[in-house]
Amino acid sequence: FSLFDKDGDGQITTKELGTVMRSLGQNPSESELQDMINEVDADNNGTIDFPEFLTMMARKMKDTDSEEEIREAFKVFDRDNNGFISAAELRHVMTSIGEKLTDEEVDEMI
Questions:
Q1: What does the alpha-carbon distance between residue 39 and residue 53 come to, in Å, rounded to a whole number?
Q2: Which segments constitute the EF-hand domain (predicted)?
Q3: Contact (Cβ atoms closer than 8 angstroms) between residue 48 and residue 40
Q4: What is the Cα–Cα distance from 107 to 104, expressed in whole angstroms?
Q5: Which of 47, 71, 83, 100 lies most in the core, judged by the most C-beta atoms within 10 Å?
Q6: In total, how many domains does the chain have?
Q7: What's this model's pTM, rounded to 2 decimal places?
Q8: What is the crossing angle of helices 30-40 and 14-23, to 10°?
Q9: Which domain holds residue 40?
Q10: Exposed e or buried b per residue across 30-59, where buried means at least 16 C-beta atoms within 10 angstroms of its C-beta
Q11: pLDDT at 63
Q12: Angle at which helices 30-40 and 50-63 pack, to 10 degrees?
C-alpha cells in the first residue's frame, strides 16, 4: 500500500495509482484510473484507503494470475532478459517506483 500512497496520507489517488502503473510499464488513461478506483471506492470519496486497497488486490489476484501475466511481470524486473532477476535489477525497478531500498533489504527480498 505504501508503494502506491506516495505522500503517506493513507489514501491512493488516481495520480498516485497512475505513477505506479506507469513505472510497471502500463499506460492507463485518467478515466481508466478513475474506473479502477471507483470499482473499490466503498465510501465514494474518490480515493482508495487501505481496506479498499485490500479489496482491489484480492480481486486482481483472483482474476489475473495467468502464466502469461506472471511472465510479463517478471520481464519488468528481468531487464537484461537472462531469465533471472539480479539484486541490481530488483533495486532499479523498486527505485523507479519510488521505493529506496538498502542493500540488506534487497538481499532479503532476493
A1: 11
A2: 1-27, 28-63, 65-100
A3: yes
A4: 5
A5: 47
A6: 2
A7: 0.52
A8: 110
A9: 1-64
A10: eeebbebbeebbeeeeebbbeebbeebeee
A11: 62
A12: 100
Q: In this structure, what are the phi and psi dihedrals at residue 94, rounded to the nearest 5 degrees?
A: -65, -40
Q: What is the pLDDT of residue 58?
A: 79
Are both 53 and 93 inside the same structural domain? no
Residue with cell 488516481: 14
Phi, psi of 46, rounded to the nearest 5 degrees: 85, 0
CA 31, 52, 47, 16 dihedral sign is negative
Give the per-residue pLDDT at 103: 85
User: From residue 40, how far is each of 10, 54, 68, 80, 82 by CA, in Å?
Assistant: 15, 9, 25, 36, 37
Same domain, yes or no, for 80 and 53? no
92 and 50 assigned to the same domain: no
Please state, in angstroms and as integers, the Cα–Cα distance from residue 60 to each residue in 35, 36, 40, 85, following that order.
Answer: 14, 11, 11, 23
Residues 6+ apart with CB under 8 A from 88: none
What is the per-residue pLDDT across 5-60, written as a single tens digit (0 to 9) for each? Answer: 889 999 999 999 888 888 777 888 999 999 988 988 999 999 999 999 888 777 77
